[in-house]
């Protein structure tokens, strides 16, 4: 049994596009970054009580900008004066299986890793300098040479689960996307808010199951409410 915490990335520029009269198919949204709100949401993960309760020994992220930025800002911050780079306790992996489904919109089209790294370093230098060192330790060795060309492997989620099962780590954070989370959970969850951790168990037979029955409560009724103030609440058990 492994403890898995799923996290949807912070609010992206793609999510705010409609408010600005920009089509989701606008080329300017190609592998778009986080909005200012999304950056703050990523920062807020640092003090999320659920995350701080775990001592993660493995963190996996999608290679898309909005996810890897969330991962670096929210989970990759370290005190470089106290922790030498070679002593970092957590392994970070970039996994293409976690990229979002739906290649029809630019924000889901990835970038070559070298280009992504350059852009991300520039952003982190301004937004989260204490995450820069962690970025040096993101393992990209499993990314195929064909990336970011179309990645349409229909079995990719199952392959990712199999990869997790083969590893020794027990406490794992996964930063990815709404449809990926739904697929991982076999659609047993509703809309996924940004940067709200979802606790799961990875069973020995490869099933990812929610630790508790849960529902998502929204304080924003607009279409962009998914990226607004939301939280996951445990349902009350009968008889209590």
Automatic annotation (TrEMBL):
<dbReference type="InterPro" id="IPR050275">
    <property type="entry name" value="PGM_Phosphatase"/>
</dbReference>
<feature type="binding site">
    <location>
        <position position="66"/>
    </location>
    <ligand>
        <name>substrate</name>
    </ligand>
</feature>
<dbReference type="InterPro" id="IPR013078">
    <property type="entry name" value="His_Pase_superF_clade-1"/>
</dbReference>
<dbReference type="Pfam" id="PF00300">
    <property type="entry name" value="His_Phos_1"/>
</dbReference>
<protein>
    <recommendedName>
        <fullName>Phosphoglycerate mutase (2,3-diphosphoglycerate-dependent)</fullName>
    </recommendedName>
</protein>
<feature type="region of interest" description="Disordered">
    <location>
        <begin position="219"/>
        <end position="240"/>
    </location>
</feature>
<dbReference type="GO" id="GO:0016791">
    <property type="term" value="F:phosphatase activity"/>
</dbReference>
<feature type="compositionally biased region" description="Basic residues">
    <location>
        <begin position="228"/>
        <end position="240"/>
    </location>
</feature>
<dbReference type="InterPro" id="IPR029033">
    <property type="entry name" value="His_PPase_superfam"/>
</dbReference>
<dbReference type="GO" id="GO:0005737">
    <property type="term" value="C:cytoplasm"/>
</dbReference>
């Amino acid at each position: 049994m492994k403890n898995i915490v799923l996290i949807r990335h912070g609010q992206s520029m793609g999510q705010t596009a409609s408010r600005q009269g920009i089509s989701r198919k606008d080329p300017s949204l190609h592998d778009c970054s986080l909005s200012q709100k999304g950056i703050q949401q990523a920062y807020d993960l640092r003090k999320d009580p659920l995350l701080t309760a775990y001592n993660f020994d493995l963190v996996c992220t999608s290679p898309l900008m909005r996810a890897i930025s969330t991962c670096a800002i929210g989970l990759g911050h370290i005190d470089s004066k106290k922790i030498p780079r070679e002593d970092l306790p957590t392994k970070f992996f970039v996994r293409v299986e976690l990229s979002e489904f739906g290649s029809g919109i630019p924000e889901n089209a990835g970038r070559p890793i070298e280009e992504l790294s350059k852009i991300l370093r520039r952003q982190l230098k301004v937004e989260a300098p204490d995450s820069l060192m962690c970025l040096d330790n993101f393992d990209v060795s499993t990314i195929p040479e064909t990336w970011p060309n179309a990645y349409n492997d229909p079995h990719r989620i199952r392959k990712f689960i199999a990869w997790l099962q083969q590893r020794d780590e027990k406490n794992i954070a996964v930063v990815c996307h709404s449809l990926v989370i739904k697929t991982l959970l076999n659609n047993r969850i509703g809309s996924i808010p940004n940067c709200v951790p979802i606790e799961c168990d990875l069973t020995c037979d490869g099933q990812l199951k929610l630790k508790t029955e849960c529902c998502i409560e929204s304080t924003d009724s607009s279409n962009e409410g998914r990226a607004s103030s939301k939280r996951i609440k445990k349902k009350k058990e009968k008889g209590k």
